[in-house]
Amino acid sequence: MNSTITFFLDQGDGTPIYRQIIRQIEYAIVSGRLKKGDKLPTIRSLAVELKANPNTIAKAYGELEIRGILETQVGSGTYISDQMPNLEDEGPDRMIRELAGRFIRDMKDLGVDKKELVRVINAHKED
Fold it and tell me: How far, in whole angstroms, is CA 87 from its chain's centroid?
């Protein structure tokens, strides 16, 4: 299996890049987008994709491996383990604020004003 996550960096976040990567992997696991056995991108390929230093990606993967959330198999890749992340320190409120903030910034960058954004959210229907 391959990962079903698109990584992104928010330069305006103020959070170190490696922490942003860790958080995105943890959130993807908790939300079910990443499951046990899913393969993550290689350090090199993710560094190229994000235009980040490979050492930064290695630091994120290394920290998650120490926590038991990732498993690296030499010559094969890095995979999600069966260990669930502990997001108690982060809390769901922080995750919601971060995701909403990112969404609002993206909409503002697209020229969507607050009134239109509220209309779109209210009109959105779950599939």
Answer: 13
The DSSP bridge partners found for residue 77 are: 73
Output phi, psi for 93, to 5 deg. Answer: -60, -40
pTM: 0.71
Residue position matching structure tokens 């910034």:
105
Question: Is the per-residue pLDDT at 89 higher than 60?
Answer: no
DSSP 39-77: BPPPHHHHHHHHT--HHHHHHHHHHHHHTTSEEEETTTE
Question: Residue 49 contacts by C-beta under 8 Å, 6 or more apart in sequence?
Answer: 7, 41
Query: Distance between CA 52 and CA 49 in Å, rounded?
Result: 8
Residue type, 107: M
